[in-house]
Write a structure and sequence with these properties.
With about 575 residues, this protein is α/β, with parallel strands linked by helices. The chain is built from 16 helices and 14 strands. Strands 1, 2, 3, 4, 5, 6, 7, 8, 9, 10, 11, 12, 13 and 14 form a 14-stranded mixed β-sheet that branches. A hairpin with a 6-residue loop joins β13 and β14. α9 runs antiparallel to α10. The longest helix is centred in the middle third of the chain and has 38 residues. Keywords: Membrane, Transmembrane, Transmembrane helix. One of its GO terms (cellular component) is membrane.
Length: about 575
């Protein structure tokens, strides 16, 4: 049978005392969490462990003793061995270092059915000067050399021991993946999730450091002083009133939005189609999640809150940078002055295109009466659009000023507002597309009927050539759709991309663990195997897939097949989600 002992590196040079940890049930493995220093009172130790067991929910116990040789403590090892009668366990681990050596010895005391202790001795010498062997990946077990058991009874039995050293801080702060509702799968055969869970849930045990005047002194990863920051603590104290104030303001806002006037059919329809209203409701939901007084207990809930908070912070920061850039050197005035000439240029190009189509494009003979009717119809729309732009030109700078000021609510809000303004300014192009698509659709259906007629009697070539008029309108509409698509993708990227999780992956990769790998520390004949457990970070693609925030939007999400079919048949592509739209 293999006995696996997970030993923290921070306890390698701890003073003599008791090993505190947990036996993993059904795995023949022990996780050492801390060392309680001598001197101590056994009754106080039992009371402290019972208290920590209630706070952490982990079945903490005294695993054995740890002896560090010092002058004047020659009989410490035998004294600590006798403590096994005060802390009765099925197995008692007795680890001790030797004078002048890096390695340490281990005695395993087991109890027979009569309650008598049986000693099994295994000398474990650790080489701390460098690493040997290659890297062993995965959660597999590395068996060491067999040790002869020198016991009072059962001396012919052989046993194997593996010491697995781990960095306690990294294991406690990491989350092993994959996870199910924030909790590792309990049905897994590997003991790694149980080891990670034991160290993580034992956080109250690590609050005691050398500066506390408690009944016991311990060695663990925070024994030299608890990690902390004055800024973080002040932010924690200030977060409660800020969250309460924000929650109250959000309650007023949601009650205002749910009023009967704003829920009337025209208002509800318009608000559901405008990207600005959708983004505003989306950010309201985000703020309600972040400012919720409910504490995040599950890992997924915590990561969702953290990703939303970081996303909102980055969004507002980028918006403030945009505001500071726009309001310097009169950039808004320059932008307003270039808007009307740009609109005139587009109108001029469209008029030249229509004049070319109304003549003989590429030398083709067209139906002149139909060309003149359609051309003048589109030219009239362009004239109306240009008149509308020139009518609004005195107010363009003021509109841009307020649009830039809206970036204080976030860059995504300004982009959503820009998308809505672009949709309104290019509404005439969508009208051209609708007219052209309808004519093209009628032509396609006419051609299909003529094809059925041709199979029996004749082929009418004159009807087949009319489809050339709608391609330029489709290309123009495609440019507008692509520009609006870039805006929507930018908004969705900021809203859904897990910035907090990606920051953890880049700067503290051990926080998101996909597995572990073992490095051989010492493998000598006649000694057990010593391994170093390192954490394998989660892949970047898995981070994005696992912690990506789901989004929704008002713009259509057609499948590529449905989109190509609509373009080919001349069916309308709506700028919002339609009832008959096919979703991937």
């Amino acid at each position: 049978m293999v006995l696996k002992i997970f030993f923290p590196q921070c306890c390698n040079k701890a003073d003599s005392g008791l090993l505190v940890g947990r036996w993993i049930p059904g795995q023949n493995s022990a996780v050492v969490l801390a060392v309680i220093h001598y001197p101590f009172i056994p009754g106080q130790v039992k009371q402290y462990i019972h208290q920590m067991r209630g706070q952490s929910g982990v079945d903490l116990t005294v695993l054995g003793s740890w002896s560090m040789p010092k002058e004047g403590q020659e009989g410490m090892e035998s004294f600590l061995r006798d403590l096994s009668t005060i802390f009765p366990q099925g197995q008692w681990l007795q680890l001790s270092r030797e004078m002048g050596k890096i390695g340490f010895r281990c005695h395993v005391l087991t109890r027979d059915p009569n309650g008598k202790l049986i000693q099994q001795e295994k000398e474990l010498k650790e080489d701390g000067g460098g690493e040997k062997g290659g890297t062993k990946r995965g959660g597999g077990e590395k068996k060491g050399e067999e040790n002869k058991v020198e016991g009072e009874e059962g001396g012919g039995e052989k046993d194997k021991v593996i010491f697995i050293h781990y960095e306690q801080r990294k294991v406690m702060l990491s989350q092993l993946h994959p996870i199910d509702n924030g909790v590792p799968d309990p049905q897994t055969e590997s003991q790694l999730p149980q080891v990670f869970g034991t160290v993580c849930q034992s956080e109250p045990l690590f609050f005691l450091d050398k500066y506390d005047d408690g009944p016991v002194k311990m060695t663990h990863w925070q024994s030299e002083g608890r990690e902390g920051s004055i800024i973080v603590e002040l932010m924690k104290q200030a977060s409660t009133p800020v969250c309460l104030l924000t929650t109250w303001m959000l309650t007023l806002w949601t009650s205002l939005c749910s009023s009967r006037i704003l829920n009337m059919r025209p208002m509800r329809f318009i608000s559901s189609k405008l990207s600005t209203c959708v983004q505003l409701s989306y950010r309201t939901e985000h703020l309600q999640t972040v400012c919720s007084p409910t504490r995040a207990t599950a890992h997924n809930h915590f990561m969702r809150k953290a990703n939303i908070f970081v996303s909102f912070f980055v969004d507002v920061s980028l918006g403030l940078l945009l505001v500071s850039w726009m309001y310097r050197e009169n950039r808004i005035g320059k932008l307003a002055n270039t808007l009307v000439p740009a609109a005139d240029y587009v109108a001029k190009e469209l008029e030249e295109l229509l004049q070319w189509l109304m003549g003989a494009p590429a030398g083709l003979k067209m139906n002149r009466a139909l060309d003149q009717v359609l051309g003048r119809f589109f030219l009239y729309h362009i004239h109306l659009w240009i008149s509308y732009i020139h009518l609004m030109s005195p107010f363009v700078e003021m509109i841009l000023w307020y649009v830039g000021l809206s970036a204080c609510l976030g860059l995504t809000f300004a982009l959503s507002l820009l998308s809505d303004i672009t949709a309104l300014l290019t509404f005439h192009i969508y009208c051209f597309y609708v007219y052209g698509a309808r004519l093209y659709c009628m032509t396609v259906y006419g051609l299909s009927s003529l094809w059925r007629l041709f199979r029996g009697k004749k082929w009418n070539v004159l009807r087949q050539r009319v489809d050339s008029c709608s391609y330029d309108l489709d290309q123009l509409r495609l440019v507008v759709v692509m520009f609006q698509g870039v805006l929507h993708l930018s908004v969705d990227f900021i809203n859904s991309f897990p910035l907090f999780a990606m920051g953890l992956r880049l700067f503290r990769s051990y926080r998101l663990a996909e597995g572990v790998k073992f490095r051989v520390l010492c493998e000598e004949p006649g000694t057990p195997l010593h391994l170093m457990m390192d954490i394998n970070p989660l892949k970047v693609s898995s981070v994005v897939q696992t912690y990506r925030t789901p989004t929704y939007s008002c713009y259509p999400k057609d499948s590529w097949l449905a989109l190509c079919k609509k373009l080919f048949l001349g069916e309308l592509i709506y700028p919002w989600r339609h009832k008959t739209t096919k979703i991937d």
